[in-house]
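Please predict the structure of the following assembly.
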Amino acid sequence: MADAVSVMPQAAHPGRTNAQNRRLWFWAFVGPFLAGLLLFVYIPIGWSLYLSFFDARNTVTPTHFVGLGNYAYLLSDELFLSSMGTFVVFAACIVPLTFAFSLGLALLLRRVTFLQAFFRSSFFLPTAVSYVIASMVWRLSFFNGARFGLANTMLRSLGLDPVNWLGGENYWYWFVLVSLRLWLQVGFYMILFIAGLNAIDPQVYEAAAIDGATGFAVFRSITFPLLRGTSVAVAMLLLINAFQAFDEFFNTLNTVGGYPPYARPPLVYLYLISFGGGTQDLGIGSAGTMILTLVILVFSLLQNRVLAIGADR
Amino acid sequence: MRPSAGGRAVSYVVLSVLAVLFLLPFYVIVRNAFSTQQWITAPRWHWLPNVFDLRNVEAIMSDESVQLGRSLLNSAIVSVVQTGATVVISMMAGYALARYSTRAAKAILGLTVFTLMVPTTVTFVPMFVMVSSLGWISTYRGLIIPALFSAFATYLFRTAFADFPKELEESAYLDGANIWSTFWRIVVPNSLGIIAAVGTITFIGSWNAFLWPMLIAQDPEIRTVQLTLSQFMTSQGIRYPAIFTGALIAIIPTLFVFLFLQRWLVQGVTQSGLK
């Protein structure tokens, strides 16, 4: 960093104004970003913290102070607690599944040369698709509760009864939601694992081959340990992204009659309680934002901590 | 470490089956876009389409109640402006944060890194409060401006510029150039890779965004295409060919970016995941 500074024009602009010029240029470059960050991230969060102590229905300048009332309401609301439970179930399914599939695909792709780019693009392609469109395919074609849905057609050909996938019974909707996200995000993490694998020195493998190590032994004793940094990053990203799930839940489950009472992850809960009723309840919504932001901050700090431990080794 | 011939054959079989499964949703979109309602909702699943002209495309594009053309235009405006402006704003900030080591620079870098830990999806209520009090509900400003200040993009640019060879800049300074012109004439033209990487990721994210546009675009005139499709999907009496034709059209820009800029997208993904 220190020698980076010496790059700046000193010889070209001698005199007293040089340091001032440099400072001005700094603010010209960084000013728009900093102003935006303050105006659209930090001031709103501060304002929300303020709102979270007020009864702020349909207003952003409330007068009725309720202290910790909004927080107390949320923490005793069974729906809020069950939204956390929904996140835990979702994360417990999607994190290990995506991890295993994306690592598996990255390893499998290394074993082939012919058509490798085609296969890689096929798995990566869903990254370009929106959750709205994926939800459309999953909801209306694959897991349509009617007889003509693809999954139900297959069940019928096996002599089984059709399933109302998104209707709420038997937790079938988890199958829809998890398979959708898995399809959409697995390619992204596969790319991360490919980058991680490419960073491993090939000489390590040559040495292992000379020692007679093969197959799974190589993976267990060389590949996986050397991939630790990537693995930790992927696992934490998966967790943080699962916490922010909204689009596919909303688009597969919301109907003209409203959102069903089940399968409400934290952001869906927060959306429904802030904007879902006839009124905008920004006091409750703000208190919810503070709690969820705190949770995600804990995840992120955990990530940094685990990554730092990984880097030490 | 070469796998045996048998092992390689198994790999090909597994990869082929998975590739078919991964491409199946794309195929289903195309099949539905080129089928009739009766064909799709028939008790028997048809793998092949039964409409071999553009009548579904014409029907959806001329449907006044859906306004697909208008929402495509809105999406194009929002994502192009957002991509361009995000790249410029974060590129400049990233450059300053890479080249200055003053106390202010260190503090702003710290703030940027801290902001990375608070994803903007979680803070939609505070952002809504701000945007609604600015009177920006149902405006392009409300859709675009709050999303322009990406700590993530700034951090990626800062990392890339920290590795930029300083000799190139030094020679420009010796020729009497100032920081501004050195940045635009020397640094930017030599950093097109990272610009393309951040640009593709931003464009795809912007085109596919759902929650923020849903909060802001309350007026149908300003809806983005994802919102229009979402509303269409949850409305009563689903017209399958129409809605999947809409999806097929809406997916084209991001697939185009994917197919032609995949190299940069891969770079963007790698850098964003392992930042």
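Chain B touches chain A through 107 residues (CB under 8 Å). Residues 122 and 224 of chain B are 21 Å apart (CA to CA).
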